Amino acid sequence: MNKKRLALVVAGIMVLGALSGCGNGQTGEKSSDEKVYKVGITQFADHPSLDNCRKGFEEGMASEGFEEGKNVEYEYVSAAGEMSTATQIAQNFANSKKDLVCGIATPSAQALYAACADKQIPVIFNAVSDPIAAKLALSETETCKGITGVSDKLPVKDQLDLIRKVLPEAKKIGIIYTTSEANSVSTIETYKKEAPNYGFEIEAVGIGAESEVSQAADVLVNKVDCISNMTDNTVVSALAVVLDKANAKKIPVFGSEEEQVKNGCIASAGIDYVQLGKQAGIMAAKILKGEKVENMPYETLNQSSITINNTVAEALGVTFSDDVLSKATAVETNK
After folding, report:
1. Which residues, 6 or more positions from 272, have their beta carbon under 8 angstroms from its beta carbon?
2. CB neighbour list of residue 137: distance below 8 Å, 6 or more residues apart
3. Please, are residues 154 and 160 in contact by the beta-carbon 8 Å criterion?
4. Single pTM value for the model
5. If DSSP codes are grouped into helix, strand and coil, which group holds residue 123?
6. DSSP structural state of residue 328
7. pLDDT grade, residue 33 (50/70/90)?
8. Average pLDDT, the chain
9. Is residue 60 within a helix (H) or strand (E), and if so which, with residue range?
10. Residues 159, 191: Cα–Cα separation, whole Å
11. 251 HSE (CA, 13 A, CB side)
12. Residue 174 bridge partners (DSSP)
């Protein structure tokens, strides 16, 4: 081979080498040796509150440098309100060896903990009102092995105070709850304990399935001055049924967060579920970066905010006081 042809061959090899190196982080693409974390997310039911938790979780992860398509791969599956489905999802996540899993709402979190803890897959819970009662934490400062997260413990006192200000003459509050949800049972007890301090009596009706919500609402609308809806996943999924029954009797329904007010409740003193999710996402990111779960007790989003729906109030003949209006954010009903 003469020198001219040799020079051309060498030049060609150099060009090919340069082209083959274009994917090695030099054009903004991820490096071939950058780890992509596999994160499983499951929520127990499909409704806006839990959807916002999931949205916030991914935003919280992104704020800590974990972005889908770059260094994290999400697998999301809904249990559609079925405990057996939640269990199956959890087992599938455990068998696929996720780097971390997130359970949104108590039943999904409990299923993940049962399936993943022994396989040393960290579990983050979100939207769990009472982690201790749900046996997902030993105490406010002690974690159970391999699990931590963020609680959406309802600000019951704030809710009772709001109801008293909106309905000065009301005496009896109705609540529907799922008897198998530890969060709901615990929160009912809190309502019963605090209600007398605000001049209220609680009329609670327990259900076992979503199909029983309609009958429970029929019972309540003939006994109470208003209904307070909690974050009970089964009942929230059937909120439209409760609202139909209550509106027909001109009974105000108070929600537990903004999305429920947008969906037709008159008002709420609740928490921001996107922010709740963000808090959980940040905790998850810290664990993926190496922080140990046992050093991270669960957190609670304590800040509540008042949301009102003027259209609903007008339809029910309710007038908000200047005190409530000065502290509230008004929203419109979703179309």
Report:
1. 257, 258, 301, 303, 305
2. 131, 143, 144, 147, 148, 297, 298
3. no
4. 0.79
5. strand
6. E
7. low
8. 90
9. helix 48-63
10. 10
11. 26
12. 203, 227
Beta bridge partners of 268: 255, 307
pLDDT in tens, 168-214: 999 999 999 999 988 899 999 999 999 999 999 999 999 999 999 99
DSSP 196: G
Burial of 295 (0-12, 13-18, 19+ CB in 10 A): exposed
Tell me how crowded residue 93 is: count the other CB atoms within 10 A of its CB: 28
The type of residue at 56 is: G
Report which of 197, 167, 178 is spatially closest to residue 267, judged by C-alpha positions: 167
Sole residue written with tokens 């529907």: 176
Helix (H) or strand (E) holding 268: strand 267-270
Q: What element of type H or E holds 43?
A: strand 37-43
The half-sphere exposure of 245 on its side-chain side, counting CA atoms within 13 A, is 21
Largest CA distance in the chain: 104
Whether 129 and 107 have beta carbons less than 8 Å apart is answered as no
Q: Which residues contact 320 (CB under 8 A, 6 or more apart)?
A: 166, 267, 308, 310, 313, 328
- Pair of tokens at residue 114: 């049962």
Would you tell me how many other CB atoms lie within 10 Å of the CB of residue 70?
13
Query: CA angle, 64 as apex, 60 and 65 as ends, to 5°?
Result: 115
Which amino acid would we find at residue 249? K
* Dist CA 149 CA 262 (whole Å): 27
Among residues 204, 143, 215, 150, the alpha carbon closest in space to that of 179 is found at 204
Rounded Cα gap, residues 4 and 317, in angstroms: 94
**Do the beta carbons of residue 224 and residue 173 sit within 8 Å?**
yes
* Joined tokens for residue 264: 């037709």
Structure tokens at 176: 């529907």
What is the helix (H) or strand (E) element at residue 275, kind and residue range?
A: helix 273-288
| Rounded Cα gap, residues 149 and 282, in angstroms | 10
Smallest CA-to-CA distance from 205 within 236, 225, 184 is with 184
